[in-house]
TrEMBL record:
Protein's organism: Saccharata proteae CBS 121410
UniProt subunit comment: Monomer.
Single annotated GO MF: sterol binding
Biological role stated in the UniProt entry: Catalyzes the intermembrane transfer of phosphatidylglycerol and phosphatidylinositol.
UniProt-recorded name of the protein: Phosphatidylglycerol/phosphatidylinositol transfer protein
GO biological process, one term: intracellular sterol transport
UniProt family annotation: Belongs to the NPC2 family.
Signal sequence range: 1-18
Keywords: Lipid transport, Signal, Transport
CDD domains cross-referenced by the UniProt entry: PG-PI_TP
One Pfam short name: E1_DerP2_DerF2
Residue ranges of domain MD-2-related lipid-recognition in the record: 45-166
């Protein structure tokens, strides 16, 4: 299975959120994940920190099925609101772990990622609505996957910061 397929399968809800650094290897600091900050809706997403000052307000994210299952189609529906435009130069710091093993740790253009969910930069201020189907391959190795995503503007203003843990079974 291509790493990009797994990344899209597990991280799509985070991309939909288009969202303190999570990666000590990238910036030398780390955000503590806080209990009780679940993202509204039927999903495994949790805010990394209190989101009231984020550019993105997430109203709802629903996954079907939740939790995602290998060999099925994952449907993602999300709504939210951007308090300001998000332009080229916005970044996402992304980490994907399989158990304790880091599979992906990278900083990339948010604008490249939002293309995977049929959006494009600049993301305009106002309401966002998204629906996306992702075919999950049967070959996803069973185990616990944890995704951390910290999204910020080109000026380092916080868009959002999310984490999700998904357990795949055979």
């Amino acid at each position: 299975m291509k790493p990009a397929t797994l990344l899209l399968a597990v991280a799509s809800p985070l991309l939909v959120s288009a969202r303190s650094s999570l990666f000590s290897g990238l910036t030398g600091s780390q955000v503590a994940i806080t209990e009780g900050l679940e993202v509204p809706g039927n999903n495994p997403l949790v805010f990394c920190e209190e989101p009231s000052n984020n550019i993105l307000t997430i109203d709802q994210v629903d996954l079907t099925p939740n939790p995602p299952e290998a060999g099925t189609t994952l449907t993602i529906a999300a709504t939210g609101n951007l308090a300001e435009d998000v332009e080229e130069g916005a970044k996402v710091r992304l980490q994907v772990k399989y158990g304790l093993i880091t599979l992906i740790r990278q900083e990339a253009s948010l604008c490249d990622y939002v293309k995977e969910v049929n959006l494009e930069c600049p993301l305009k201020k106002g309401d966002l609505k998204l629906s996306k189907d992702v075919d999950l391959p049967r070959e996803i190795p069973p185990g616990k996957y944890t995704v951390l995503a910290d999204v910020f503007t080109k000026d380092e203003k916080k868009i959002t910061c999310l984490t999700a843990t998904v357990q795949f079974h055979r």
